[in-house]
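F.,

This is the one I mentioned.
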């Protein structure tokens, strides 16, 4: 995370910067007035001065909220469903595979309901295990998250059409999965088509360092067809196996924190964000912040248009109640109060403005030199 300037920190506590420097010195840290300190140290300092960290500075707030589950008490951790991202070249059948999986596994009582494309949804397996799938229309969210060192997915399914073979976006997707460090399963789709050549796909991918188990490598290839349903059960089985060993856990008792994977303005419902919960639980009535957008959760809606009071770890849901439409790819989290939400947004806007005016200054200097 970004370092916080000592002067900024002091300012927010209404004390002199020198006092902060002195305190840091006492703690064994030699810093000067104009240096930044990391969020963790900032929280320490703030507490040393008798304040609560969360109300002082949004950067610190984010640090507090972005703690990973290693900060959770072991006893609070509970198993959570795996989040699977489905990637691949356009038209190779990502959405079709997801639709087919979903149709075959709609929970009783949900069949026949209006299903909406919210870009993510949950499938229940025979054994009762749940798997959450994300359909990526673009990889932007994935990329911007990765840039911040966060990953929202546990496993990637790389879809390659058996007739088309490996294409540019296949490689792009492969690189994303690699960079995210998540295990990958290859689904060789459109096996029903004349000219389907799964061996060609295996050969092509082997040239990119992905070796099938059948060929002595460690990547699972599953031949499937979204149209006939061939191989889909096996794909789910492989996913279940793959994720079992990951022993995924989260802490549903803490405040909700997640990622906006899609967002739009709905004529009737206002700003709508599809949120994937990373940790904690979102509740109706919670105050949330995402980027510089705030809001109170008016409704939590699943992909079957059903409303819920809460949404826990790994659950994708549509969130209603935001003041405006947030950018996809951003982190969203629950805060304690509307005041805290406003503080964070003000801080973020100030920071944006600062960065904006700095960029402007640089630009005008450049102009100046250019004109000399
Ligand atoms: P996406 O862009 O990866 O999401 O691909 P889509 O799911 O939209 O599929 C692109 C096209 O391929 C559509 O016309 C699908 O009907 C077709 N398609 C998808 N899966 C299969 C399959 O298993 N067999 C055949 N024959 N066509 C498929
Ligand atoms: Mg699609």
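My design for it:
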């Amino acid at each position: 995370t970004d370092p916080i300037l000592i002067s900024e920190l002091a300012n927010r506590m209404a004390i002199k910067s020198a006092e902060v420097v002195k305190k840091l010195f006492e703690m064994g840290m030699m810093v000067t007035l104009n240096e930044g300190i990391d969020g963790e140290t900032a929280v320490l300092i703030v507490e040393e001065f008798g304040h609560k960290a969360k109300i002082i500075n949004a950067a610190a707030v984010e640090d507090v909220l972005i703690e990973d589950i290693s900060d959770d008490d072991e006893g609070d951790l509970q198993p959570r469903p795996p989040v699977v991202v489905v990637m691949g070249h356009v038209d190779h059948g990502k959405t079709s595979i997801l639709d087919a999986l979903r149709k075959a596994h709609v929970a009783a009582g949900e069949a026949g309901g209006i299903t909406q494309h919210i870009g993510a949804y949950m499938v229940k397996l025979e054994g009762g295990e749940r798997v959450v799938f994300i359909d990526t229309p673009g990889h932007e969210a994935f990329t911007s998250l990765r840039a911040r060192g966060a990953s929202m997915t546990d496993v990637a399914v790389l879809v390659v059409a058996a007739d088309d073979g490996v294409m540019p976006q296949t490689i792009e997707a492969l690189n994303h999965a690699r960079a995210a460090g998540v295990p990958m399963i290859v689904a060789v789709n459109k096996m029903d088509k004349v000219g389907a050549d799964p061996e060609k796909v295996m050969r092509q991918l082997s040239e990119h360092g992905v070796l099938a188990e059948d060929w002595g490598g460690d990547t699972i290839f599953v031949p499937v067809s979204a149209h006939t349903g061939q191989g889909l059960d096996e794909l789910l089985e492989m996913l279940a196996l793959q994720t079992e060993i990951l022993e995924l856990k989260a802490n549903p008792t803490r405040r909700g924190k997640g990622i906006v994977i899609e967002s739009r303005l709905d004529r009737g419902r206002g700003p709508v964000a599809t949120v994937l919960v990373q940790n904690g639980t979102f509740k109706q009535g919670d105050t949330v912040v995402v980027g510089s957008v705030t809001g109170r959760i008016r409704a939590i809606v699943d992909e079957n248009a059903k409303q819920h009071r809460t949404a826990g770890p790994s659950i994708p849901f549509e969130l209603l109640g935001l003041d405006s439409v947030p950018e996809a790819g951003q982190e969203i989290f629950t805060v304690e109060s509307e005041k805290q939400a406003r503080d964070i947004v003000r801080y973020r806007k100030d920071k944006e403005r600062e960065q904006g005016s700095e960029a402007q200054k640089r630009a005008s200097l450049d102009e100046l030199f250019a004109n000399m």
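Residues 155 and 183 are 5 Å apart (CA to CA).

Talk soon.
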